[in-house]
Amino acid sequence: MNLRFIETFLWVARLGSFRAAAERLNTTQAAVSNRIATLEAALGQDLFERMPGGVRLSPIGQRAIAPAEDLMRSAMEFRISVGRPEQLRSTVRIGTIDSIVQAWLPRFIERVRELYPGLTLDLNVDTSRGIAREIVERKIDLALLMGPVLEAGLRNVDLGSMDCAWVAAPGFGLGGRRIGLADLVDLPILTFSRNSDPHVWLMRQFEELRLPQPAISNSNSLSAMLRLALEGVGVALMTRPVVEAALASGALDLLDVDPPFPPLALHAVFADHGDNLLPVALSEVAAQVALEERGR
What we know:
Elements lengths: L2 H13 L2 H7 L4 H15 L4 E4 L2 E4 L1 H24 L7 E7 L1 H6 L1 H11 L3 E7 L2 H9 L5 E5 L7 E9 L1 E5 L9 E3 L8 E3 L5 H12 L7 E3 L3 H9 L4 E5 H10 L3 E6 L5 E8 L5 H18 L2
Parallel strand pairs: 3-4, 3-5, 8-12, 9-10, 9-11
Antiparallel strand pairs: 1-2, 5-13, 6-13, 7-11, 7-12
Helix pairs in contact: 1-2, 1-3, 1-4, 2-3, 6-11
């Protein structure tokens, strides 16, 4: 029996439509429809009930899910354990955030290439909210983001945390002394994207201290924020790995702000079904690389 047809069956079942499965498998809707029709003819059973706007599993289709996942898992385990790593050919879609890109993503990619040189990594960089939405919709295979993502059918792997830091160009004269958020109210602030968890936390702190809302410029690009901070455009709240070089050179001052900003909790997230072995393996690689980064 053609494993590609089994894989197609599983993705149609997970996504609820031939169109969505075709997008996920990078093929045409006609090809998906043909694979399912061929599989149903071979089994002599209807796996799906057709409805306006999509499909749903038939009773036979519901019974077929677990054996289909077992079959795909066994096939992948065979390829991983028996075949040579360099012969494992597949594309893994990974979504991640700029904080991880700027910290340890290059070492993660290098490690993956060492272990699985035949893998192609299709990367997308977005906000944690955007990446979370894509993993929920199964548009990507693995999410590396600020998490967790609390959604049925997803598994979260703890990647530890990443420290944040308030920084400013020396011209602001804020370094070398203890300051509070009240000292920042009248200054332009550069920080994470609007409605992200760090942005919401920061706004809440100003509200709880009954301080006026400051002028905040939001961005999902840490490299853009770093450039603006270096140019003295504003005081920046950023992840610590991004600003280490600028702090070491004296281009930016590290600010001692009360209350301190909490570390960002990072997670690897993937669909928790039996045949999803590659994202599981890559999440373990990510956890090891993130641990090594914290030990530097």
